[in-house]
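Protein in question kept in full:
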Amino acid sequence: MGTYEDIISCFPMDQIRPEQVLMLKGVADALDEGKKYILIEAPTGCGKSPVAITLCKYFKSGYICTDQKNLQKQYLRDFEGSAVQAIGRSNFVCRQASIGKKPGEEIHCDRGDCTYDSQFQCPGCPIAQDGITLEEIPRFAATSAKRNALVWKKNATAQNKCNYWLHKTKALNSEIVVNNYAYLLTEGNFVGDFGKRNVLVSDEGHNIEKHIMNFVTVSITEKTLEAFEDVKFPYIIENLSARDQIKHGQEKLMPLWINWLRELYMRFPVRIKELDELKSFVYNSGRGTGDKECPSKIPKACEGKTKDEVLEILVNMIERLESLSWTISFFLGECSKNPENWIIQPEQEGPKIIKGEFKPVRIDKFAKEKYFKFGETNIIMSATIIDFECMAKDLGILPDEYATIKIPPVFPKESNKLYHLQVCDLSYENTREEKDYEKNMLSVVQLIDLILKRFPEQKGIIHCNTYKNMRFIKEHSKYADRILGHTPENREAVLKKHVENTIPSVLCSPSMAEGVDLKFDTSRFQIIIKVPFPYLGDIQIAERKRQDPQFYINRTALYLVQAIGRSVRDKEDWAYTFTIDSRFPDFCYSNSNVMQNFNRHERSCLEAFELLYP
């Protein structure tokens, strides 16, 4: 059989869609050409998840990576028995620490006895033994890419085996593992039990760059400095605000901050050791360990706290420093080789600097080293790749290394009718002053109220760009009782409430333009209030735009194409989309090459008038 026949034989469902055939045939052709990177743009409704499972089955060992919890759950639900999820320790109850605890009081594995006492030996986790196989020892647990064979300890029983390790060994032994980007990057680069597999399928692949950038960004906060107490953020001039510091330019800021970071980093090993000894001392105090003296001074952040609170603070400090140790080391090495690719961005609260971040402008030089190394072959799938050539370049993939597959839209354009209402110009110049902001936003709210009045029995969503806009809309709308805002912390709970609501609620969110499935009656209309240009106050964004102006356009287009797809998730689904910012038509027409999947839904102004004023 040829490559395509072998691949199609692994398809996990009874029926296969034409779009899935096109994807799998394209992959087969690319593999026959020897391509190691295959970029697939396939819109919502094509059935990308079964394709991902098919390819992992064909390659016999693979990862599926996504950044959305609901997508991870979907894979596990739809392909039960085929895929296993890999997730972190905080999701599992520690059996040792929870002995004698009442229901609801259990301790999770990220705060088990082994995290508090470095001398504690958990009986329920596996250990590494070189040269051991399943046939040679019945206690074999799994194979680690870094440590070889993992074997359950002799005193590990069904009752005391670590819940996290039971889960992890199952994933290590599974043919298909579903990860989120953060977990695979962290586990694969730090711990190393999960190593290279035959294929890595990156779902929602347009976000790969963002996740690698987050992974290598060095973020030093006030919380970080609590571990040292005598360290302050660097200033060019004492008491000069972060905003004023930035005016001095990167050429002055970067050397100052790098020297400061290097000196701080040199103190990490000693401080981690001191905090670890202090943590063990506090943990064992009152446990019959004698009258040992406190090994070091208690940090000020621990003063006046209970024993449990002190332990939590110390563990957080250690974890923060250990994680930063690798990231800082990587940054210092990369910055010395390629200094123009890094920026420093201080952040202030009032006149005080509260954070400093070292960010790469581009991640193309180390994307393979940090992420793509986990797949011998890499499949990148997304509904919104926008520009294949730019994506490949941004991810460090060479022109002769990749093939592309583009599936046309499967939903009729009439299923999501788009209306540009052009009420007011919401550019920075027109909203910078508070009085101008309020004037324009009142016009926005007036139109939102008109739309909500037109759809009194339907649910919908307002893409409001910022939390400030969200609060303004909630405070000024006549239909505030229908509008559901949220915080970063309760986003998922509010989304769940909206989906389950029996009343026609309307989500108002700055962060639901992607990864949210509002199909059928959960959203019959959506409102995009502003052209979502990336924030140029972010130095990394500004520098990236300077180096590559098309990046700025593509990032905006990506947001819009993702946003318009939130409310139509099926061929039988339908919704109306309204834009408010008067700059929308010009942006859409001027950039039609990357906005075609958005522009195809546009309807006339006359039709919009007839819809809103029946």
